[in-house]
Every structure is written in C-alpha cells, then in structure tokens.
Amino acid sequence: MYGYAMNKKDLQDRLRRIEGQVRGVQRMVEDDKYCIDILTQLNSVTAAIRAVGIGLLDGHVRHCVRESIESGEGDEKIQELVAAVARFAGK
Amino acid sequence: MYGYAMNKKDLQDRLRRIEGQVRGVQRMVEDDKYCIDILTQLNSVTAAIRAVGIGLLDGHVRHCVRESIESGEGDEKIQELVAAVARFAGK
Amino acid sequence: MYGYAMNKKDLQDRLRRIEGQVRGVQRMVEDDKYCIDILTQLNSVTAAIRAVGIGLLDGHVRHCVRESIESGEGDEKIQELVAAVARFAGK
Amino acid sequence: MYGYAMNKKDLQDRLRRIEGQVRGVQRMVEDDKYCIDILTQLNSVTAAIRAVGIGLLDGHVRHCVRESIESGEGDEKIQELVAAVARFAGK
Fold this sequence. Notes:
mainly alpha; 3 helices; elongated
C-alpha cells in the first residue's frame, strides 16, 4: 500500500519502456552499431531510470514520510530517506 | 533560522576545507602536475561538496519539511524538496 | 566492426541481465514493494548500465580512437570521445 | 609539460571562480540562507568543477594519450584514461 507519486500504471508503463530500450541496446550491439551511438542510447536509459527513481522518491515523501511525521515518528523514516537520496544521488 | 543537520560550524569547516582543496588544485595546475592526478583531486572536491549537500538536505528535511508537514502545509515544501533532490541527483 | 573491450558476448550477457533486473523492478512495483527497496534495485540497474558504458568506452578508445590516431586523423574522434564522456559523466 | 585543452590561464581563472563560489556558499551559510538556495549554489559549483574536469580530460587525450599512441605505447595510457573516466563519471 505504498503510494508512488507516479501512479502504479505510469510506473509500469515507464518500466516497460525502459525494458524495451534495453532490448533496443541489445539489438544495437548485435548489429555492431557504433559505440558512441550505443552509449548515447544507454544515457537515455539511465535518464529514464532516474526519472522513475524521482517519481518513487516523490511518492515516498508524500505518503510514507509525511504520514510517519504526522503520527509523530518521522525520525527513522527521515534518516532512511536521506540515506536513500545519498545513494540515489550517486554515491 | 534554518537547521542544517550538520551544525553551522561543521558546515563552515567543511566548506573551508573545500576552499583549501580548490586552492590546492590551483597549485597543481600551476606546477604542471599530471592531468590524471588533478582530476583525482577534483573528484575528491566533488565528493566533499556532495557530502555537504547531503548534510543540508538532511537538516532541511528534519526541520523545514517536518515542521511544514506538522503544521499541515507540507505540500509545497515536499514539491520543492523533490525538485531539489532531482537537481542534486544530477539532472 | 567495432571492438568493444567487453567482447560482444559479455556485453549481451550484461544487457540481458539488466533487462531481467528491469523486469524484476516491474514485479516489485506490481507487488507493492517498499519504495526504498525498489529505489535500491534501480540504483543497481544504473550501476550495471554504467559498467556497460565504461566497457563500451574502453573498447572505443582501444580500437576506434587508437586507430584514427595511428592513421594521423585522431582530431575528430577525440572531440567526439570527449563529448561522449561529458554526456556520460552526466553533463 | 602537460597540455590542458583549456589553457593554463583558462583553467586557473575557472578554479579561482570556483574558489570564489565556495566562499560565497560560506557566506550563505553564515547568513542563514535557505537550505535549498545553498544547495542550488552547490550544484553550480559541482557543474563548474565538472567542466574543469572535462577540460582536463580533453587536454589529456589530445596530448598525453595521443602521443603515447603515436609512439606505439598507448596501452597503459588508455587503461589509465578509462579508469579515470570511470571515477569521474561517478564511480
């Protein structure tokens, strides 16, 4: 019962599109496409994944984090959130 | 009156160290040090800046965002937070 | 006839594994898994994609860029390479 | 005697500007500016550092890497370059 800011259908659509992009990259490798073009395609996969991640974080803050703060116990959720942002922000 | 999770003194110490690192890089360039070594040094500046950014976000969520949620008006703050995370996570 | 440093089979194996990871994320969303866990999984997809990108860049420099330098016409390839690194390094 | 693609003066000017930006962030913290605004400023420091890094890589490929390839011993330089790109691209 987690609330993603992108709704579940949106998320799934985006993930299916990402899956398709990854298959497209496989075909590019199969067809010996030019490395730089494959790399460009990989960048757009990464950007699409990042957008999904931001959507998830958005929903997470709007729902889980907000609710735990409203019920007076946000500390742990906030700590977990910031750690997740640190990993997501790369590292 | 914003509360940074790293306290103000911590933050300032880190920022001064970052300033010192940047001056160190200037000396490396001045002394014609090897590019790859300079690049390594730049990476550690970036990592130090990222750590400050995470500390700021941490304080921001713990204070501003939490308080605005507690007073029943978190929406705008949450939206602003997620946009900031998206930019910080690098775009 | 491009030479990837990871050989073609390696690359394809990795890309298929990435495709599988993306499908795994779809199942996590389907099953209403916890946002932070999904995000962790997305981070590992991103890391896997980055590894493929590095493998591609490696092969590209070892083959295309090297050969164009050896034949005395590296300028354009070098410019293209650095632009690709800039985009890959995330802008 | 390393050749940076940005010339030495360019690099130093940029690094001095970055140093000034970092001092600006210190003043923002000193003056209790809003966290999100400080974070925005940090992002622009990071972007400026990244631009310097790209300039360094550019010069490195155009000079060191190219010359070592031309003299028939590019292998080690290429390996070092790709490792540096991997770290620069974040990890």
